[in-house]
Amino acid sequence: xxxxxxxxxxxxxxxxxxxxxxxxxxxxxxxxxxxxxxxxxxxxxxxxxxxxxxxxxxxxxxxxxxxxxxxxxxxxxxxxxxxxxxxxxxxxxxxxxxxxxxxxxxxxxxxxxxxxxxxxxxxxxxxxxxxxxxxxxxxxxxxxxxxxxxxxxxxxxxxxxxxxxxxxxxxxxxxxxxxxxxxxxxxxxxxxxxxxxxxxxxxxxxxxxxxxxxxxxxxxxxxxxxxxxxxxxxxxxxxxxxxxxxxxxxxxxxxxxxxxxxxxxxxxxxxxxxxxxxxxxxxxxxxxxxxxxxxxxxxxxxxxxxxxxxxxxxxx
Length: 316
Known about the structure:
A hairpin with a 2-residue loop joins strand 10 and strand 11. This protein is mostly beta strands and 316 residues long. The protein has strands at 2-11, 16-27, 30-40, 49-52, 55-64, 70-75, 78-83, 87-95, 101-105, 113-120, 123-129, 133-139, 147-154, 157-165, 168-178, 184-195, 203-210, 227-229, 234-241, 244-253, 257-265, 273-277, 280-284, 288-293, 299-304, 307-308, 313-314.
């Protein structure tokens, strides 16, 4: 019954970023501001917030500014002076119905940033990244004393987390590789299945590589790009690589892993979306709509759209 809206608040003097939270009560046709709060740091996206049993859980990344700490080194007779860099840290807040803090976790994965968050009832999942991908499992059953129960470190990171069931969660993101300078860079995409049945010992059950280097997908920053039909164990999204736009759908099998189930290449344009109605799959973009039978993926019909540039509306 509540709507939460956030606003970023900058303080350039101290290089500080805060998030202001507005809580609105939605009742009948009335929208009433009932509370306002503020936390340090910025949120990743809407999944960084979640209301549960009247409390708001919110995960943020914030800057730690070193006060112009100068470091001098003598190298081959030359004095080299450098200034310490700003660092990052992360925090999980739990706020009551009045947006007052009642619990929190500090310094969650210091020197890393939050890349994805998912709250599922009394458990929260947070992925941070700098060199490897830590998946944190957090017990939120006591809102005044949230606790990190488990941690899994694997190469790469997940930009989007999607619940499969109460014991499994799907992560979609990137593999990483050595950049040759002591750091890492993104490589191809990947999708992972995590077993979180034991909160103290999360595991990556299996994963599948997607594309090659420089592969991208809208799903990495827009969850509306996801196609998901749990009843048939199907999950999919658009994939872009080397100028090609593909729609890829995978079959999920907890014993065998992910299996590529359906792929269309160069079917229209980028920015594609998928929806289904019963057993019909619809692929939509700004030029056409195509329908497929989800049982055998045979094309049923294609409707070409003629967009009127003056009215920005469909005229055919």
